[in-house]
Design goal:
The protein has 766 residues and is of the alpha/beta class. The protein has 28 helices and 24 strands. The strands form nine sheets. The protein has a four-stranded antiparallel sheet, with helices on one face. It has a three-stranded parallel sheet with strand order 1-2-3. Helix 27 runs antiparallel to helix 28. The structure holds zinc ion. Zinc ion (ZN) binds next to loops. The site of zinc ion has 8 residues, from loops.
């Protein structure tokens, strides 16, 4: 039995009124979907037993604006304190601020199959439906204050507090008014300049009727009040409202002592987290609700929420393997549903599980479920096939199915191709392994070489079950399995063992597996994958041996470019930067943290004893400005140009005025007492002993591995010659450093001209 059936059993046969709500003060984030979907599932199950079940969804559009999404802060700050309904819409299509966001969310909810009657709190107030509960609350304000104090421990509210705010007739603000008296007909109020920090009242005082939409109860009182108004018997809330002394406790106490209304069924559900964090639109954590429906088919998105018990934390992060795994789970449950259709439910425990799976699928239904078993093209395979050029995907699955795909099956395949493309473009590559990894395969026996070659050939032609292909290839060559697997892992990951072979191939993707085999088995002749040579000139630059020993993964690119012209700005460069920013639309700060390059810098910051929450490595700092819709700093054509590459490649770079540098330069730990005058500072900063920093014969010219640069060597519009460095460590490979160097040089030459005098790589391990 799944969670919703357990709840239905507890609720019994009584007719239920299910309700949920949302405050349309910004774009709903993905986490806001959990509540409405859970309520919808409960409503559906109850309606199947009792057709009188009611399901309403209230938009709290009367609430005041007490915060704004970042992109609206400039144009809408004048409306802070206004009711959401009285502020204008950001676009021309909607009537007001509330409608702009509630319509957006409603659209997402409807696309996920939510069938509710949508209500507006503003409208209900203006229709007089809240008059009775407002009167009760005002008449019982001392009881309410007592409950606030006893249940929630609120000691701060003064004895003259009233549970109501009215819309100021003069300045239209709601969030700034304080009611000071109630005579049974009208309330006396003041529009206070300093009641809240986020809005300023106009100072007007007067009396007004609290009814018919003039006033509104505070949320904690409004919640149980609207239960009474609508007749709600079931309304859940997120875990944050269910803590001791929280909204739920207050609401239940108010039901009993003030509104004399039977408390609804208690239903608290856990958070919907993104990468371990609670989602928040204002902090840029997670995805918007409508983003979830653009990366997953509606049924699968709904399945993500339906399948998990409300008391469990729901985690979803679209990066990496989560989406293919989700589709696999969906298919497993759909298969159970087919077994149910076919009356083939296994006996005992296995049968219970099968029925639960089938139930989850039935409740995840958005478009009608198939009436009989279908062949399901596996999403992971579809994604892998899309990586192979010119592959006839329907034909592939028809071969596998050993018959033609039906119309319905073709539709499913089309849909999966669509979403697999979205997945590949946006999420699959984020944790990709480097293609150019070169492993030694020189000591392979002839048999091992033959096996790898045969395996690669077989893999090209058939990809449904890579594990089987390995065993077929082993048989074909007649090699000892141990020998074969050693060769397999050595070729792909440079070790003699590894994860399950099939999983490794799935993770790498077919195309990449074949590419790696090609790269690593070219018969012993040295491949020239390097774009730049080793730089063996300690008179120019070296890595201090102590540092090299501690961080053998260091790869530093060095270049000298002479004769450049630096300008304040350049329109073409500006355009190139703007286009790049546009391509990152929807990027969140959470996603930035998932890039292996960013994780590598965070790791070295940790090693240096620097808190990366307060001092962000430069690629992260730049990308965060974009994610938070802040303008990038414009310095000059040289710095702006290479910063674009820093953002594109996520590899940190620095350029320094060569005429201020006294060679040789070295990457080393600071000596005791060494300090640096940073660009923009008045006082020098002391280095940490564990810092990694670049020094010339005069002193340090940056701090924390290119976090900030020195004033002395800054590139300005007078700079003619520059020294460039690029910082690779941990997962940032030499190939990535070389690629960054190449693009850095290209963009500097493009916008500043000049000539490359020297360019090369210094690796700690060589
Ligand atoms: Zn006012």
């Amino acid at each position: 039995m799944i969670w919703v059936d357990r709840i239905a059993k507890q609720l019994g046969d009584k007719t239920q009124h299910i309700d949920d709500m949302f405050t349309p003060s910004g774009y709903a984030h993905m986490g806001s979907l959990r509540g409405p979907i859970l309520h919808d599932v409960v409503a559906k199950v109850l309606a199947s037993k009792n057709k009188d079940t009611i399901f309403t969804y209230v938009f709290n559009d009367f609430d005041p604006i007490d915060g704004l999404p970042p992109q609206f802060q400039k144009d809408f700050s004048q409306y802070m304190g206004y009711s959401l309904r009285l502020a204008p819409s950001p676009d021309k299509k909607h009537k007001n601020f509330a409608e702009y966001f509630s319509e957006d969310f409603k659209h997402v909810l409807e696309s996920l199959g939510l069938k509710a009657k949508y209500l507006s709190s503003w409208d209900m107030h203006h229709e007089g439906k809240f008059n009775e509960v407002i009167k009760i609350a005002l008449d019982n304000k001392d009881k309410i204050l007592d409950i606030y104090r006893k249940v929630a421990g609120y000691q701060k509210k003064a004895a003259d507090w009233y549970p109501l705010q009215v819309i100021c007739p003069k300045c239209k603000r709601l969030g700034t008014t304080k009611v000071t008296a109630w005579d049974g007909k009208v309330v006396t109020f003041t529009c206070e300049p300093n009641l809240v920090t986020w809005a300023k009242g106009c100072g007007y005082s007067g009396s007004i009727s609290p009814f018919d939409g003039n006033g509104k109860l505070p949320w904690k009182v409004d919640w149980p009040a609207h239960w009474k108004v609508l007749g709600v018997t079931f309304e859940g809330a997120g875990k944050d409202h269910a803590s001791r002394g929280g909204s739920y406790d207050i609401a239940f106490a108010l039901c009993k002592d003030v509104f004399e209304y039977p408390k609804p069924f208690y239903f608290a559900y856990e958070f919907f987290l993104f990468g371990g964090k609670k989602m928040s639109s204002s902090k840029g954590i997670g995805l918007k609700a409508r983003d979830l429906t653009s990366i997953l088919p509606a049924d699968v998105a709904r399945f993500l929420i339906v399948r998990l018990s409300p008391e469990k934390t729901l985690e979803f992060n679209p990066a990496g393997d989560s989406i293919p795994n989700l589709f696999d789970d969906y298919d497993r449950c759909l298969n159970a549903y087919f077994l149910k259709l076919e009356n083939k439910i296994p006996k005992k425990k296995a049968g219970e599980v099968t029925l639960d799976f089938a139930r989850i699928i039935e409740l995840s239904e958005v478009k009608p479920l198939p009436k009989k078993r279908l062949y399901l093209p596996r999403f992971r395979t579809v994604a892998n096939l899309l990586k192979v050029k010119n592959k006839n995907i329907p034909e592939f699955f028809e071969n596998y199915k050993k018959s033609k795909l039906t119309v319905e099956e073709k539709e499913i395949l089309e849909e999966r191709i669509k979403y697999a493309k979205i997945y590949l473009e946006n999420y699959a590559e984020q944790r990709d392994l480097s293609l150019n990894t070169k492993h030694s395969t020189l000591d392979f026996s002839q048999e091992q070489k033959d096996f790898i070659k045969t395996f690669a050939e077989n893999l090209k032609n058939q990809i449904e079950d890579p594990q089987k292909i390995i065993f077929d290839s082993i048989k074909e060559i007649n090699i000892q399995p141990r020998e074969a697997f050693t060769a397999f892992y050595q070729t792909l990951i440079g070790k003699s063992y590894g994860p399950k072979a099939g999983d490794l191939i799935e993770k790498l993707g077919i195309e990449k597996t074949i590419q790696l085999i090609k790269n690593n088995t070219s018969g012993g002749e040295k491949q020239t994958t390097s774009q730049f040579p080793d730089l063996n000139n300690k008179k120019v630059f070296s890595i201090d041996p102590l540092l090299a020993q501690k961080y053998p993964s260091l790869n530093i690119a060095i270049a000298i470019i002479k004769g450049i012209t630096v300008n304040k700005n350049d329109l073409k460069l500006r355009k190139e930067i703007d286009e790049f920013i546009k391509s990152l639309q929807g990027l969140t700060t959470q996603e930035i943290g998932l890039f292996p390059e960013i994780q590598s810098y965070r790791r070295i910051y940790k090693e240096m004893g620097v808190d990366w929450h307060s001092k962000r490595p430069s690629p992260e700092a730049l990308l965060r400005r974009i994610a938070r819709k802040k303008e990038l700093y414009q310095i000059n054509t040289c710095v702006d140009a290479y910063n674009l590459i820093v953002m594109k490649r996520r590899v940190s770079s620095g350029a320094f005025d060569l005429n201020q540098i006294k060679f040789p330069t070295v990457l080393r730990f600071p000596k005791p007492g060494e300090e640096i005058l940073l660009l923009g500072d008045k006082e020098p900063t002391k280095y940490n002993p564990a810092d990694l920093a670049y020094f010339d014969q005069i002193g340090g010219y940056n701090i924390y591995f290119n976090y900030r640069d020195a004033q002395r060597t800054a590139v300005t519009e007078n700079t003619k010659n520059i020294l460039l460095n690029i910082d690779g460590i941990y997962d940032i490979t030499r190939e990535q450093v070389e690629q960054s160097l190449k693009e850095n040089i290209e963009i500097i030459l493009k916008y500043c001209g000049g000539k490359v005098e020297l360019a090369g790589i210094v690796s700690a391990s060589r």
